[in-house]
Design brief:
transmembrane helix (chains A, B), 2 domains, 11 helices, EC 1.6.5.9 (chains A, B), FAD/NAD(P)-binding domain, NDH2-like_C (chains A, B), six-stranded mixed beta sheet, transmembrane (chains A, B), homodimer, alpha/beta, oxidoreductase (chains A, B), four-stranded parallel beta sheet
Amino acid sequence: MVIVGAGFGGLSAARALANAPVDVLVIDRRNHHLFQPLLYQIATAGLSPADIAAPIRGVLSSQKNASVILGEVTGIDLATREVLGHNAVRDGRVGFDYLILATGARHAYFGHDDWEAYAPGLKTVEDATAIRHRLLVAFEQAEMIDDETERRRLLTIVIIGGGPTGVEMAGAVAELARASLATDFRRIDPRQARIILIEASPRVLATFPESLSTAAAQSLQKLGVEVRLGQAVTQCDAQGVEVGGERIDAATVVWAAGVQASAAASWLGAEADRAGRVKVNADFSLPGQPDVFVIGDTATLTDAAGKVVPGVAPAAKQAGVHVAKVIRARLNGSPAPAPFRYLNWGNLATIGRRAAVADFGWLRLHGTIAWWFWGFVHIFFLIDFRNRLAVMLNWAWSFVTFKRGARLITGNPDRQG
Amino acid sequence: MVIVGAGFGGLSAARALANAPVDVLVIDRRNHHLFQPLLYQIATAGLSPADIAAPIRGVLSSQKNASVILGEVTGIDLATREVLGHNAVRDGRVGFDYLILATGARHAYFGHDDWEAYAPGLKTVEDATAIRHRLLVAFEQAEMIDDETERRRLLTIVIIGGGPTGVEMAGAVAELARASLATDFRRIDPRQARIILIEASPRVLATFPESLSTAAAQSLQKLGVEVRLGQAVTQCDAQGVEVGGERIDAATVVWAAGVQASAAASWLGAEADRAGRVKVNADFSLPGQPDVFVIGDTATLTDAAGKVVPGVAPAAKQAGVHVAKVIRARLNGSPAPAPFRYLNWGNLATIGRRAAVADFGWLRLHGTIAWWFWGFVHIFFLIDFRNRLAVMLNWAWSFVTFKRGARLITGNPDRQG
């Protein structure tokens, strides 16, 4: 069987099939699994790429029935039951009996694809290091320049989208400017940097209870972030953005406003929702194709409890495990598992060094206690023991010293890792 | 005063001028100081770039008389006493009273500059991550391919140059293939990779005593490296290399064979040796220009003991401290310090996980004890406390597990960090 994509969904499916009587072939265009929820820490120079990424081969090294190929999938032939691809995929075709597509999502610009050049999103290691590059270079240029208007532009950072990524990014940028860089320059004061978070809806963290949205916005404001709610961005260009009829000149603009599923729906000729997510059956199989499954951010499903499964890492992992169970049951001839039900352990978002919001349904936390909880959860779920240690060390160090270890300006801003 | 270059020489000069009655302006085209002796560990996925690089601003943050600008210097105007540059250098000109040039060296291809594309060297973070990319991708492609000849080419790694960089690189590549990657593939056995170290002279580590050269070559052979001595490379191309009339097809070729000083000599119109190093006075000043100093890999000097100062990090640091003393003495009107004398604490090179050679003049070590010594020395001299901890952690982890944490294939091989 073939699994395309080694994100949270694909990798958890592969691992859950260890010792099952199948050969599992994992295809990914990257050689590493990435802990995407912490990407914003790479973008803000708190962590190095290797701290939150693990080579897929390494993760599956001891799983005898699993093999990995680095390859770009370009389509699926349902008639011949083959995955089509190029580069590393041998002969351009790989046959499958069972297929799991877990190819994730990219950012969506709602019809303004030209904005991507000015307002990059945050999905890959390269995205994150490109944003880190822009951010750090803007401070360097501000230190050098004499023109006051341009200096203000260089010291203005706009984050578009008030979901967890946008909120966490805004908090981390604020701390980078207010603490880590504070005393490193001589002509500018990085604490004067203007950091603006723009959200089109009336509140940040729309999936959280309203009280926590308010708490998060207040925490951001305490860090000096301007939070602009109910205002949509109408223009992005090389100089900055336009929002609510107002022009904001900004050298660094980050897009955290929307996602679009990968191309799996078009590969399959399958029905999809507006965000491109494939509509799947209750067991994540494709309608009419019981051996083809779509999971994670690439699929949309209303679970057995009547709730829409959210596009978050825990949901993708649970889906991977569920599909593995479905396949195991079929291979063993045993009855299919109970219909999928997403188990929500809680929602978490952090705002800088000491604040976070946590929603467990029965319990809502904000402030320092939520932050500590957030730290433990994120370290616990980092996939590889070594990464956990490295991240803990980095965090402990920057917690004590306010410094950030990964403040490197390297390579070309548009192409790096 | 102005210091161009924040390598070992420039940074040690800047720090040695703390509290001196001068404003010290440090100009570098990179925002980070790089611990170059460990670059090969980035190239072989043992460490992350941020582990061996420290932001220059951070290093000098608390030194009140120092400021830093990110800029590319393009020349020196000795008549107007200005440093010329572009980008971040304001108005393209910065005046100086004292000037220290510490701009380092690049690899030299001995008139075959076209070889650089096929046999990249190892001087910057981008160099190292580009080599890491080639190396890891070659194993991935070998896993995929059916053609046996091409697979052998993909699994052949050639390192040209048997100095410390070449020897350390060959040892690290051997361990990557024989240990870290050993069980990660299904169709190839990375332990079968062919690793060849080519040195034109009759022995590796030519600056060490002959007994240690022999010990180093034996340690490499024990790790499975083919050591070819007394053979010069006569051709590098996309398929591999030609050496001693023999063709060796290799997907990864690394150049560690020679260095060429930076352009400082031509900026100054100064006399230089064949490697482009400026011939300086006994106090590192430029003949006829007592306020202009050239140090580190950019200068050549025979010291007060009659020995040629070598192009190594400790010598550059000592030169930086010496020039700072010369300038302090002039500012204070006190007598000039005693002529420079390079204090050689010893030469070290490591071969893989457990072997090294160390030459202290009065004592020569090889094997495990030299390796431990090497580890302590390198960690001790890493410029920033946090980096020391991170490197120790990474090493401890890979020592115990044989794994390598930074095995990421990211971005474009030619442009990344």
